[in-house]
Amino acid sequence: MSQLRKLEVAGEVAGVNHIQPLGNNLDTVRGGPTRGSIEFGSSKPVEWLFGQGKSEGVVLVTKMQVWLVPSKYKFGPANKKLGPEEFPILYHLWYANDNRVIRCEPALAQFTPDMHQTVSLGLADLIYRLQDVITWHINSRITDVRRNMRGRLVVDAGGIETSSLDGDGDIYLRSNASKSGVDRWVKQLAVADVTQGHLTDAEILGKIMQTVTGVNDNIMGQYNQGRRSAQEARTVLSGAAGRMKLHGHLIWESSLGRLGRLMLANSRQGLSQDSFNLVIGTPPSDDQAAVQEMMQRFTTFQGTPEEIVGGNDFFVFDSTLSSEKGFMAQSLQDLLATILQSDPTAASRMAAGVDPVKIVEEMQYLRGAGNIKRFRYTPQEQQAIQAEQQARLQAELESKRAKPSLSLSGKMTPEQEAEAARAAGIGNGAVPPNSQNPNAVQPKPVTAPRK
C-alpha cells in the first residue's frame, strides 16, 4: 500500500483508499491454489494476503491490456466518458485485489521524439501536408484533362442550329450560312493545359515524403532507377533499417515495454526444463556431459527473482538483413574452400589452429538453419566410424608388411637386364633387339672357356 500511495501522489494511480481487502475465497475465485497463494510446505493459503486486520499493506495488483470503446465507459462522480471515440482503443488497465481499478490509460505510442511537445507528431501528422498537396496535384490534373476532353466551342447562333449542339451527333448550319464557310460561325476554343507538370510535382513530393519518413523504395519492395551494385544495395537497406529502428524503439518503450518486460520475466521464471529443451535442443540421453551442460544453461537462464528484478534491459537491434547474412556465410565458405584447396600445408596449419566444424556452424547460423547440433553423430555412430577407421588402418599396415615380389620384369631397362643376365651366367648378355636405345653399342658375345 505504501508503494501505491507513492504512485498516487505521482499521478500514476488513483483510488488507493477504496481498495477492499481480499476475501478467503481467493483460490476459489481464481480457479484453485497457485504458487503465490500457497505457503511453501503447506496446503493453506498465505495468511498475509487476506483481510485488512492481518496486513493492510499487501495488495494484489493485476496489470493487463484490453481493448475498450471509450464512449461506452464512464468514470468519476460526473460519469465522464473515457473519450469520444466510437471504436476500440487499446488501454493499460490495473486493478487491485480484484475489486478496484486504480489505473486506466490509453496505450499511446510516439512516432518521433520531441522534447518541446507534450504529445509528439505521429506519422500521419508528419506527412499530412505533403499528402494533401500531392492529392491536390493529382485531382487538379484529372479535372483539367477531363474538361479539355469535353471540348468547348465558340458558336454564332445566327449561322448554327443551336439545337444540334446538345447531342452527340452532327452540327447543322442555317441556310443563310452554308455558303460563307464553317469557320465563321463555329470554332474550337483553344485552352492551354497548365497541369501538365502536376504529376511530376507529385512525384517529387513523394520523394520528399520518403526522405521525411525514411521509408524508401527498397523498403517498400521497389527498385530505384539506374544501376546499383550489390554492396551498395545492401548498405542502403541496412541504413534504412537502422533508421526505422528508432520508431520501433519508441513504440516499445512508450506503449508495450512494461507489459512486454512483465511477460518476459514471467516466462523466464515459469519456463520448464522440457520447454527449454524444445527451444535450445534436446541433448542425447546417453551423453552425460551434454545433459549436465544443458541443465546448467537452464539454471542460468531461469535465474533468481533477485537477478531478474535487478537486471538491466538492453534494447538490441540487428540491422543486418537476411541477404547480408547469406553474403557473409558465402564469403566464409569461399575462404575455407580456397585455403583447403590451394595449399595443403596451409590447410594443415589452419586445422591445427581453427576448428572447421565451428566455421560450418557459423555459416549455417547466418543462413538461418537453426540448431545444427541435430546433425551431429550419435555416440553409437561415432563408435562405428572409429571402428571403420581402425579397420582401414589395419588393412593398410598388413599390405605394407607383405613380402615384395622377386620379379623385376618391366622395372629395369634392357641394358640393366642384359647386365644382370651376364652376371648370373644366363645367355650371352646381349641387349634385346627391341631395346629402347637402338643406337647403343651392342656388347660382344662371350664364349665359355673349354674344359
Structure write-up:
It contains 14 helices and 7 strands. The protein has 451 residues and is mainly alpha-helical. Helix 4 (128-150) runs antiparallel to helix 5 (198-213), helix 10 packs across helix 11 (344-353) and helix 10 packs antiparallel against helix 12 (356-366). The chain is flat and about 155 Å long.
- Assess the beta-strand content as a share of residues: 5-15%
Please trace the helix and strand order, writing H or E for each element. HHEEEEEHHEEHHHHHHHHHH
Number of helices: 14
Give the strand order of the largest sheet, numbering strands 1, 2, ... along the chain: 1-4-5
Measured as a percent range, the helix fraction is 40-55%
Main beta sheet, described? 3 strands, antiparallel
Sequence-ordered SSE layout with sheet pairings:
Layout: H1 2-9, H2 26-29, E1 61-68, E2 74-75, E3 80-81, E4 89-96, E5 100-106, H3 123-126, H4 128-150, E6 153-155, E7 186-188, H5 198-213, H6 230-270, H7 273-280, H8 288-302, H9 305-310, H10 322-342, H11 344-353, H12 356-366, H13 379-401, H14 414-424
Antiparallel strand pairs: 1-4, 2-3, 4-5, 6-7
Briefly say what this structure is:
The protein has 451 residues and is mainly α. The protein contains 14 helices and 7 strands. Among the domains are: 2-106, no CATH class; 153-188, no CATH class; 237-310, no CATH class; 322-394, no CATH class.
What brief labels describe this structure?
451 residues; mainly alpha; three-stranded antiparallel beta sheet; two-stranded antiparallel sheet; 7 strands; 45% helix; flat
